[in-house]
Every structure is written in C-alpha cells, then in structure tokens.
Fold this sequence. Notes:
Elements: H1 16-48, E1 49-53, E2 68-72, H2 74-79, E3 95-99, E4 107-115, H3 126-129, E5 139-144, E6 147-150, E7 153-154, E8 171-176, E9 180-184, H4 194-197, E10 200-201, E11 205-214, E12 220-221
Antiparallel strand pairs: 1-2, 2-11, 3-4, 3-11, 4-9, 5-6, 5-8, 6-7, 9-10, 11-12
Amino acid sequence: MSExxxxxxxxxxxxxxxxxxxxxxxxLEFAKMIACFLVLFFVVRTCVVExxxxxxxxxxPTLNSRERILVFKLSQRLSQFRLFGWLDPIEPGDVVVFDxxxxxxxxxxxxxxxxxxxxxxxxxxxxxxxxEPVSGESVPVRIxxxxxxxxxxxxxxxxxxxxxxxxxxxxxxxxxxxxxxxVLGDNRAVSKDSRAFxxxxxxxxxxxxxxxxxxxxxxxxxx
Length: 223
C-alpha cells in the first residue's frame, strides 16, 4: 500500500520590486513619525513650555548664571484670548522672562514687583469688540530713598533682593497702564530693569519661570 505525502507549500520569495515598495513604505512611515514629532515639539515649545538658560548675575541669589529653568507659557498665551480673559497668569512676586524689545535680541529674567490695573472688557464699547482693554486707570509706582512704593504703599512680601536699593536711590513716579508690569532683578546692584527701561508690556512676556532643572542639586520651583 502506497502512501502519498504532501509537501508544504512555500510562498514565493519577494521580488526586488516588492522589496523596494516595502522599503518605501517604511521610509514614508518613518518620515511621518518624524514630522509629527517636530510639529508637536514646535507647538509645545511655542505655546506650552520652553527651556531657558540664565545669563548674568542680576537674579542672584534666586537664579545664578548658566542655571537652566523651564518657562511656562500656556496660561499667558490663553489669557490673550477674550474667552480666557479671566485668567491671571502673572502676579507680583513671580519671576518672569520677557523679550527686551526694540532692536536688541535678548531676553530678560526679572521679578514682577507691580502690575497695572486688570484689563476689563465692555460688551458695548467698539474698541472692546476687537478685544482691546477698556480702562482709564493706572497704578503709580515710585522709588523714594531706596524704598519701592506701589499705590503709595511700601512694597512688602514680593521682594527677594540680595542687595537692597541704595538708600539715596529714587525714581520719579511712573504709572502702569493695564497690561504693564514693573520689574526688578533680585540683585539690585547689577540689575538692568524697570529703573532703566521702564514698564514692561505683557505683549513682550514669554512666560513665568516655574522650575529650575539644572543643576540637579538645585532642582525645584523658582520662587
């Protein structure tokens, strides 16, 4: 009695054109993945958080030169839209990073000492319809004999100065409009701040310095 055996069938080997098509698909998928990663990185860096390297000694002892911090942007970005106008991302005492403005291409890191009045929006005013703040108020800030006064009250509770202002230092009163900030460096003796360039408009604000991540020995919140 004879037995019949069936040999296992084998799939034909991929032809060179098939291999090329498979390689093309793999390259295309890899390119898509890289593109998605770059878009995500750009969105996060532009709108959410950005790493920043401190340069100079104007914020000692809070921040030292070459330390690295994360600057949080999202709440500041959202607050620019009418729908999120109720957000208050920056308060006196916060450490912020902002663009220098003008022809200089640099960023400053300073502490907010005072803010202008909060923006208010009218539902009937034509300017407010375009998202412009409606407020005729302002906040007076001055320095008299080395003491900072906001609304004629001595500033307390938002200071972290390594070196106080000189006892004879004075600054004529300036008035902060809505969306403006008065900033000082913690190391007052060497800091270039609102004493030199005046109020900072929130349009130049990059974000709030929230976390120091380098050096690791000083990892923690920026206060």
